[in-house]
User: Fold this.
Amino acid sequence: METLITDNIEIAASFLRSGELIAFPTETVYGLGARIDSDEALQKIFLAKGRPSDNPLIIHISSQGELSLLTDQIDELSQKLIEHFWPGPLTLIFKKKRSISNLITAGLDTVAVRMPAFDLATSLINKVGIPIAAPSANRSGRPSATSCEHVMNDFNGLIPCILKSPSTNSIDCLTKYGLESTVVNCSGEQPILLRMGSIPFEEIQKVIPNLIHYQTLNSQKESQSILSVIPLSPGMKYRHYSPQAKVILIRSLSELPLDNESKAFTSSGFIGLEASVDSHSFQNIFQKSLLCSSVEEYGANLFSFFRDCDSEHIQTIFCETPPRNGLGNTIMDRLIKASLD
Ligand code: AMP
Ligand code: MG
Assistant:
């Protein structure tokens, strides 16, 4: 099959309407979408990605009105989160309506929903006329795709269409955040952060102070009863975000025996923060390096850097660990998962 790259929303929407998959950009990462009312179309997502069927999908909507198709449970807490963070990179988990396909929810009685803050994505959903189920547009286990080029690398010949932004000529233009959405479970008594993401935990806690992190829950013995009734995110048990290169986390460059004569790092990459590094000291040591001026830039470039290193057949990527707060914690979460064997 030939993969069409287009900036024409009408063409992309017609593929979706006819039950085909398309990849499209959002403010987080590229999504691989199918219409929610066709099991045949949804099945194609799992096949194309190589995604385990017990890992549920996020439904993307273009207006709050569409939420009533998916859930009857919009309580005060969810309403607060919606008002503050939608449209945006926050996925909320609700009790699902019976009509939603089990392929989307992997048999859970809950459904994950998000309204993207990227006009092209919401216009696309709006044109199709029904919500779109879309996980990240990468082969399972790989770093998420943050440009049209990344999607091509994973799915060229496997999907019929990639929608790209008309405002960018090049196919290597990156999505804004470069990290997936934050996932919060609102289906129980206690709101729980299930996946760290583009919106930091602290930002959400400002709006709902009783938000807790699933890791905190996990470490509290008395919480076992809550854990048994609230489904955690099935996707969290899988290896994720991994380049082919080995990822090694370092607190600072001083942990490496660097000098200008060093040949040990020629097939290596380095990504870190500008502020903590003397850029002259290692310029010719790594095959590829990226110094970011902020944690936001680090997050936006991380997966792209992983993929660039892979295309240069780099064997080891050293990643400087970011500060352990805000978006730094999200980046740390991705780095840890990417570094697992
Ligand atoms: P992806 O779209 O590939 O970024 O992954 C979506 C994430 O949302 C995965 O980690 C899923 O396990 C999680 N997710 C989707 N639906 C649910 C749900 N009903 N309950 C808990 N987690 C979910
Ligand atoms: Mg994913």
